[in-house]
C-alpha cells in the first residue's frame, strides 16, 4: 500500500492485489430487465390468469379462494419461461429489450436444471424484499438467481 504523499505526488507504484477477469460478462441495465419482466407478465402470465379464472374456475371469487389455482398459474408461467430460456435464451420481454440470458461458463443458453433452479430462486427472491432489491446494491447488478446459478442477463450486441 502506498503512502498518501506518494500517491499525491504521483510516485506511487500500482499494486494489484486481485486478479481481474477481462472476459467478464456485463449485466444488462436493471431498468431494461424490469421492463422486460413487466412485458412477460402481461404477455405470458395474464392470459394464464384469465384462462384459469374464467374458463377453468367459476370466476374471481373461486380463483382467490383457491390456493391450488394460484400455484398452478405460477408453475405454468414458470414452465413457459423456463422453456423460453432453454430454447431461445430470451423471453418475449427479453426480446423486446434486446437482452439475453447466458451461462457464465459457456456464454451460451442455459441448461434445463439451471433454468429450473433459476426460476425457483426467482420465486423465493420475489417473496423477500431484501433479495428483490439486491441488484441495486451490487456493482455488477446481478440478482440472487444470477449469482447462485452462475448466469448473466446481457444486452445483445447489435
From TrEMBL:
Compartment(s) where it occurs, according to its Swiss-Prot or TrEMBL record: Cell membrane
Primary site of residence: membrane
Organism lineage string: Bacteria, Pseudomonadati, Campylobacterota, Epsilonproteobacteria, Campylobacterales
Residue stretches spanning the membrane: 37-57, 69-87, 116-137
Keyword hit for Thylakoid: no
Protein name: RDD family protein
GO terms under cellular component: plasma membrane
Superkingdom, taxonomy of origin: Bacteria
Keyword Transmembrane attached: yes
Membrane topology according to the record: Multi-pass membrane protein
